[in-house]
Design a protein that fits this description.
The protein is α+β, with helices and mostly antiparallel strands and 322 residues long. The protein is 35% helix and 19% strand. The chain has two domains: 2-92, Isoleucyl-tRNA Synthetase, Domain 1 (Orthogonal Bundle), CATH 1.10.730.10; 159-321, OB fold (Dihydrolipoamide Acetyltransferase, E2P). It has ten helices and 15 strands.
Length: 322
């Protein structure tokens, strides 16, 4: 249960990659318990111990089915279906109730043969960016010298950030406690668009509802939507933390009280791209090193500006931002 709670905490803080890794580490623990417990032997020598182990493992499998739902919803439904638990919800994790009969089961995943693995590895080796670069090189090599494409100018981190990420000033117009998450608020924010945007944020331990209501924040507006305990979050707010403290123990929301709603933030010296930005995945966003330097929200050595104004943290003056 302790490890499941750790995974739950990682998901609440949008640390999706680490959460995914720990889910499969938990499945490995279950597999080891099965092998070490040898229930096929214990069912004769100690049937009570065998029964207890198998019961625990069945509910571990049920919990794994719930935990993988944000990553593999189809596999989650199939796995829970084997246990007759298609209606299982997050609050069922760690409990020992609900599974009354195991139905017909099948392979959850099809094993890839070695030839297919080699084919896929050759096709998808490296990043998409590197494969595109290889294509450009091949095209240039095939062209006459006078028609060869010009070399691509390398973008700075700040320029990449400006091209990919939309930061907007938004005002919190409603704050509700998430019904299925003790550390989660459901925030409705006004971005200047006709309809408010709903985001889920794990800042309950740090701010009361009253401290947040009508505050202006920095919203990552084009973050790919994600489900948090049944509520779809369509963005995230920016907050600073103390780099010297343990992860997830400090939080200071970056407020922008004197900046107009809907104002875009850009790294100094960059511009809004001509083409609309697409949605950005959480791990791609977190790959950009945002931080506070002497309190000023910055990236790549440049302050982030809203109508020429900097935004500042009051407490964590030289911390990470996410």
């Amino acid at each position: 249960i302790e490890k499941e709670l750790e995974i739950d905490n990682l998901l609440e803080h949008a640390e999706l990659r680490e959460a995914f890794r720990r889910i499969f580490a938990l499945s490995s623990i279950g597999n080891k318990a099965f092998q070490d417990g040898e229930p096929w032997k214990q069912r004769k020598e100690n049937p009570e111990a065998a029964s207890s182990l198998l019961r625990t493992l069945v509910y571990l499998i049920r919990d794994l089915g719930i935990l993988i739902a944000p990553f593999m919803p189809v596999a989650s439904q199939r796995l829970l279906g084997y246990l007759g638990e298609t209606q299982a919800v997050w609050h069922d994790i760690g409990t020992f109730a609900g599974v009354s009969q195991i139905g017909e089961i099948d392979y959850l995943f099809t094993k890839l043969d070695d030839d297919l693995i080699d084919t896929l590895r050759a096709r998808y080796a490296g990043s998409q960016e590197s494969r595109n670069e290889e294509k450009k090189v091949k095209i240039q090599e095939s062209l006459p010298v006078e028609t060869a494409m010009p070399s691509v100018v390398t973008e700075s981190i700040a320029e990449q950030f400006a091209r990919k990420v939309t930061l907007k000033i938004a005002e919190i117009i409603d704050v509700q406690q998430h019904p299925n998450g003790d550390m989660l608020y459901i925030l409705s924010v006004d971005t200047g668009d006709p309809e408010p945007t709903v985001i889920v944020s794990s800042i309950v331990p740090y701010y009361t509802k009253e401290q947040l209501l009508h505050q202006r924040i920095v919203l990552v507006q084009n973050l790919k939507p994600a489900n948090f305990r049944g509520v779809k979050s369509r963005g995230m707010l920016l907050a600073a933390s103390d780099p010297k403290a343990e992860p997830h123990t400090t939080c200071e929301v970056i407020f922008a009280p004197h900046v107009a709603i809907g104002t875009e933030l850009l790294p100094e010296g960059t511009q809004t791209p001509a083409q609309p930005r697409s949605q950005v995945k959480a791990d791609a966003f977190f790959s950009f090193p945002l931080y506070t330097e002497h309190g000023i929200l910055s990236i790549d050595g440049r302050p982030l500006l809203a109508d020429g104004k900097t935004l500042e943290a009051k407490q964590y003056l030289d911390g990470a931002v996410g």
